[in-house]
Amino acid sequence: MANFNTHLNGAFAVSGTLSLVVYKAGLVNDPGFLMCVALGTVGGLLPDLDSDHSTPIKLGFNIAALVFAFGLVMHWRNELSLIALMALWLAGYGFMRYVVFRLFTRMTVHRGVIHSVPYMAILGLGLTCISYYGWHNTLTASWLYGLFLFGGAMVHLTLDEMYSVNLSGMTLKRSAGTAMKFYQHKDKGWYLLLYTLLALLIYAAPPFTAFWEQLRDPAPWAQLKVGVLPAFIEDILY
Ligand SMILES: [Zn+2]
What is the CA radius of gyration of the chain? Predict the structure, then answer.
């Protein structure tokens, strides 16, 4: 299994590059660009949330709770009084910190359930739904946020899979093939729950075809092609 630093660097490199691509293509705005980088990087750390030596993860949890509470306050900043906003902040933070994360650590007892493709797909799709229906972000931004979170997690699972291959002797360690996991028989109850949740989320998700059409639209990518090289080189070429 790859270590924390490898995951952090790997996920940051991949999500940073892809975020730049979608940003340069004009598919996300400035804050959206930062969101994509952050989500991809966080996604790269998520599957190991259940590892024992994860102080950075606990810190990450705390930050996530703060960001969530801040998001709530920002969303209702015009409708509510100052006292109500402060109460909302505390309630949001407490809810994430003591309800969601407690539940989460309960689940982590079943190692492998979190370290799996369907679990990460649920998180990605869930984020897309929250972003679109809850925060009223655009369809494109919402799908990209979910995809970046999921993509970061897939970078993580791929890295673990690669590290389970002993490169010097090209022999497979015993952990080979266990990282990129879709199902495990000993946790069949959990996987049944995961796939049921996933099916519900797919049903509830914002329209994918409209997002896909936008991605297939050649205009943003043409814009990207213009901005790939530094301006002085383009002056020479065109
Ligand atoms: Zn891992």
Answer: 20
What phi-psi label fits residue 165: left (phi over 0), alpha (psi between -120 and 50 degrees) or beta? beta
- Distance between Cα 115 and ligand 1 center (Å): 7
C-alpha of residue 7 to centroid of ligand 1, in Å: 8
Note the pLDDT of residue 70. Answer: 83
pLDDT in tens, 190-219: 889 889 999 999 999 999 999 999 888 888
Ligand 1 centroid from CA 43, angstroms: 11
Tally the domains of the chain.
1
- Residue 199 in any domain: the answer is yes
- Strand-pair partners of 165: 172
Ligand 1 center from residue 48 Cα (angstroms): 5
Q: CB neighbours (10 Å) of residue 149?
A: 29
Domain span including residue 226: 4-50+109-237
**d(CA 122, ligand 1 centre) in Å:** 17
| pLDDT confidence band for 168 (50 / 70 / 90) | very low
80 domain residue, yes or no: no
pLDDT band at 148 (very low <50, low <70, confident <90, very high): very high
